[in-house]
Amino acid sequence: MNASAATLRTAIAAGLFALAAHASAQVRTETVRFESNGDTLVGTLYLPEGAAPAEAVVVTGAWMTVKEQMAGRYARELAERGIAALAFDFRGWGQSEGSPRALENPERKTQDIVAASRFLQQTLPGARISGLGICASAGYMADAATRTPVLQRVALVAPWLHDAAIVAQVYGGAEGVAKLIDAGRAAERRFAETGTEVTVPAASATDNTAEMFQVPYYTEADRGLIPAWETRFNVASWEGWLRFDAQLAAPKLTQPLLVVHSEAAAIPQGARQFLAAVASPTQQLWLDNVAQFDFYDRDAPVDAASDAVAGVLAQR
Questions:
Q1: Does residue 207 surpass a pLDDT of 80?
Q2: Calculated CA dihedral for residues 272, 77, 296, 124, nearest 10 degrees
Q3: Kind and range of the H or E element at 146?
Q4: How confident is the model at residue 13 (pLDDT cuts 50, 70, 90)?
Q5: Model-level pTM greater than 0.85?
Q6: For residues 143 and 129, what is the distance between their CA atoms, to the nearest angstrom?
Q7: Nearest CA to 45 among 159, 137, 127, 109?
């Protein structure tokens, strides 16, 4: 059941009002560490100054990214709105342990989200824990929410929610998908036999072998191209990524769900398909003419999405 735009605006306003007593422009950060399947993950905990927060959220970003990119931006925005937020590096990425490196593995990342939610629950025992997934990690966040009761609400911003049909549309049909999977399997074999990781640049403005060649945000130094990001993509990622079906989580989801998206962003049909299959209460905010990458760091869409997420997560 989908709330109307007017109903959602009312809900957001009510939630933000509930947070007003705790919200503060002052945010402090702590570097934290926790375990996931034997590896140590490193995160940044964003805490609003003042009273202990009643709400806390695990925030995850787009594929191949680290905590200092869009996850950190949204985590800070939510902390400024009175919600404690944890952004962290998945296994094999950024400052976290884990091998192989730079591997986009949906199962591994979903397990890490579950571990992060439990860590946040232990760290802030009085807070209600929710999850926010941005872009590709929206599917992982939804999957994680079906695996743990710790995540009590779910928000997805600019969600990339693919299934086999959408994968074929995006990656050149059955032939294109098969070629990528073959390349991924060859990279897996090489790693198993020699320990050598086969990687390509994750993004580049000049190298056309990059996974994201001349793509905005990722190739711009004043946006996503930051020193903390290695800009590597492990070719062994392909089979796990392409065979991951984010849509499978939709009918299993029991938590209230918010989706913030735009018809001008990536695969909006995936979000609509997902929403149609969710049985739990859902709310939607569709912004006009917002490109996928602008959801990551442009002030207007980030502010609108953060207001919606904070308002909905604070509803009682």
A1: yes
A2: -70
A3: none
A4: low
A5: yes
A6: 16
A7: 127
